[in-house]
Write a structure and sequence with these properties.
Elements (H helix, E strand, L loop, with lengths): L13 E3 L4 E20 L3 E8 L17 E6 L2 E6 L4 E11 L3 E10 L14 H16 L17 H15 L3 H12 L28
Antiparallel strand pairs: 1-7, 2-5, 2-6, 2-7, 3-4, 3-6
Helix pairs in contact: 1-2, 2-3
Amino acid sequence: VPKDAPPQPIAFPLALPQNRFITLEFSQLEAGFLSLTVRCEEPVQLWAFFDERMDGQELNFYRLDCCNILRFDLQPGEHHLLSMECYTMKYLRLAARGGSCQITGACVREYAAPQKSILPSALPNSMRMLWNAAAKTWRQNSVDLPMDCPSRERAAWLCDSFFNARAERALTGQSLVEQSFLENYLLAEDFSPLPPGMVSMCYPSDHPNGQYIPN
């Protein structure tokens, strides 16, 4: 593809020759499980590199101290692939090594909170895109507990929950995620090895180093 060529709509199947790669751009930033459908006539090693953004023509899959790489060793036939972990991506680069293949489908299966946002009826059209983006961001960060972020750190930090809870109430009119988060603390019998009176900063997956956030 020429360096300055505009993005083209994806038309499957996509031929992926040996030792070549293609870069796909999803319409939105998605959090979920990478799903691929691949057909190959020979053994091939399929590599998937991904990230939330592009740096010009470069895809930095080590950004934010991550290793956004998946490898699939495929034998001849049709394969329906689904990642075991949840990832966040808008850009996906697929590379074939040792053989060629056809990509017949690619998507991200969303993994987010089931609650839908309550779009205010009086909201101007100019603000609807912003509202929907905020709602999608909240849902991706709130599958069951308020998370730091859905990509590199799917952890329920106590300090982030304060803002997440306000967003949940404003966007959905409910506090279901906040209630689940606080119930975990109420059910805990102790927070050792923390000092008496202190609570874990990332419960129930806190670091066993005695540190805490005094907020």
